[in-house]
Every structure is written in C-alpha cells, then in structure tokens.
Design goal:
This protein is mainly alpha-helical and 242 residues long. The protein has helices at residues 28-42, 49-56, 70-88, 95-113, 115-121, 129-144, 149-175, 178-189, 201-213, 219-241; strands at residues 18-19, 25-26. The chain has two domains: 7-68, Homeodomain-like (Arc Repressor Mutant, subunit A, Orthogonal Bundle); 81-241, Tetracycline Repressor, domain 2 (Orthogonal Bundle), CATH 1.10.357. Strands 1-2 form a two-stranded antiparallel ribbon. Strand 1 and strand 2 form a beta hairpin. Residues 1-17 have low confidence and may be disordered. This is TetR family transcriptional regulator.
Length: 242
C-alpha cells in the first residue's frame, strides 16, 4: 500500500524532520511537547497554529506537515498523557490492585502533573494507540476478576468516567488563582461557626470532619468505594456461575 492511498496517515515520530529557527529537529513530539507547555502556562485557549509556531520556532504552515490541525494536536496530547501513565504502571498478581494502581497512575498525570492539560483533554476520545492500550488493559483486568465481556465493558466505562471526571474537578480547582483556593478552603474551615444544632443537626455533627475532609481530594476515598463494589460484584458473579 502506498502513502498516496492513505492520505490521513501521520508520519512516525522522528520522520520528516525539519530544522526550526533555533536549530531543533522539528517533529510531532516537538509539537506535542510545546502544546503541553503552552497549555500548562497559558491555558488551552491560547493554543493555535501561530502560538505553536512561535513556540517551536517554525512557520505556522509547518504544523500541517505533522497534524491535520490544532484539534489533531490535542488528540495527540491526550494520547501522550495516557502513554505516560501506562509506562509508569506495573501490573501485580491481583486484578483489583492492578486496577487501583492503573487508576492512580492516570489520575496523577491528569490531575497532579499536568492539571490544565488534563482538564482540557479529559473529555476527548483519541482512538490512538495508548488509548486503545488502556482499554485493552482495563477490560482485561476486569475479565481477570470474573466479569463477562458485557459487564467488564460496563464497569470499564463507569471507572473511566469516574477517573476522568475526578481528574477534571481536581485539576480545575488546582488551576484557580491561589487566593480563590484559599477562600474556598477558609469557607469550609469556618463552617462550624455558621451552623446550629437546631437548624442543621447533621451538618453540625459532621462539621469537624467536613472542615478537614473537604480540603482534600476525594479521589482515594471514591476509588476505594468503587473497588470495593467491584470486588463484591466479582465474587457474586463468580459464585453465581459456579
């Protein structure tokens, strides 16, 4: 098959390299690196062929030698984020532990290391190799737990939505100006003084816990709840099929 018959095929990383004005080899990876840096420093709204051109030191039209447009760059960025997490993940002998470690690896990349980028690309479906690898691994782990294909697919979807939604929430909060973050935390810290046992007995009773727990991400607690549920359902499924 010749390249002419596959017009949408992207060149492999490292091929069709050209020198930028600074002397750097131009490639897909250079554009992806620069896109991530721009998003983290200035937000996804600033991303354009012109701003990327300035970042890599090339003419704006050079972008189209490697990508179909800015959205194509964002999809490549999303796949890069998934790839970073997968490369750090190591499976264990226990499917639930492996699943938990995978979720944590993805969350750290999206919410902690690249919060603005994670928020910008969490809703996207890339169809690219790393995303497909993540699907294969996750459904495989759920199948190892005893779920049939339909159930494994259902719980893959639920786990993915939880993970990406939590990462977006935490990443978006991290991106707020520090004074706004501090003000929100102060609101929770001062909650007990605004409550009365007669009007809000349950909130008042929980106020001491709220003022500390609401200052932290709920990712680990929510993940624990989901994994516990999966463990119970897996045992039920296995026992029912025995």
């Amino acid at each position: 098959m010749t390249e002419a018959t596959t017009p949408n095929r992207q060149p492999a990383t490292g091929k069709r390299r050209r020198r930028t004005r600074s002397g750097t080899d131009l490639s897909r990876d250079v554009y992806i690196d620069s896109a991530v840096n721009l998003i983290e420093m200035r937000g996804v709204g600033v991303l354009s062929a012109r701003t990327l051109a300035a970042a890599v030191g090339a003419d704006p039209t050079a972008l189209y030698r490697y990508f179909t447009g800015i959205d194509d760059v964002l999809l490549a960025v999303a796949d890069r984020m998934i790839g970073i997490a997968l490369d750090r993940w190591t499976p264990t002998d226990d499917w639930l532990t492996s699943l938990a470690n995978l979720a944590r690896a993805l969350y750290r990349v999206y919410a902690n290391e690249f919060p603005l980028t994670g928020t910008a690309i969490a809703t996207r479906t890339t169809g690219l190799p790393n995303e497909i690898r993540a699907v294969e691994i996750t459904i495989g782990l759920l199948r190892d737990g005893g779920f049939d294909v339909e159930a494994a697919t259902r719980w893959f979807r639920s786990l993915s939505d939880f993970l990406l939604g939590q990462a977006m929430l935490d990443g978006a909060f991290t991106a707020l100006p520090q004074q706004i973050q501090d003000a929100d935390h102060d609101t929770w810290r001062g909650l007990p003084e605004r409550l009365t046992p007669d009007d809000t007995p349950h909130a008042e009773a929980a106020a001491h816990h709220l003022r500390s727990m609401m200052l932290e991400s709920s990712f680990e607690a929510s993940l624990e709840l989901i994994l516990a549920g999966l463990g119970v359902m897996a045992r039920t499924s296995t026992e029912g099929g025995a």
